Amino acid sequence: MRASLFYIVPLVLISLTGKGQVGLEQYFYFNSKQLMTLVPIVSFESEDQWYAEARYNYEDLETFSFYVGKAFTSKSASNYYSGGPTRQREKVVYSVTPLLGGVAGKYNGVSGGLNAVVEYRDLFFSTQSQYTIAYYESGDFFFAWSELGYQPWKWMFFGVTTQHTYLYQSARLIVEPGGVIGFTMGQWNFPLYVFSPASDHYYFVLGASLSIGGFNRNK
For 8, 33, 57, 201, which has the most beta carbons within 10 A of its beta carbon? Predict the structure, then answer.
């Protein structure tokens, strides 16, 4: 029920305004030893490029987060959602979105972040990073998820990915390299990630993302 509210609110907003673009994402974290963890993410970008994003179970389990920001893009760039490239055919397409938000639940704090993507023909690079300051004893941390990929066909993409987490309280850096393969069907993307495959702590992330709505940035 909690996760479903993430999807209902932006869909109502776009239905009322008739403008903007909604991104719906669902990620499933799993390995051979643990039950599946669900991570829903919903984003909304207005026609004048104001951006909002809500997450659950992302910063920590049983934790909500909400971010707002402003997107700065090349004219022909469509909104980008993690899980796959937009496959633009311009020489260089980019989108950079600084974010500011709050985190509440099992972890409580304030957070600043950056979503960015750059595409050159069939190559794409994306990164989502944040620095989060805890209210209590949970500890501040920096986190970044980056991908470098190639899309040889309209329906498939693959690449390398990595997650970096720095825990300031313990001065500990965690690096989780991995790979991704994904499939595209219209406005849908279905990526499958594997992280730390060479270690005993490997795990998988299965994703599904959909973009709804849109607008013309070339006017």
Answer: 57
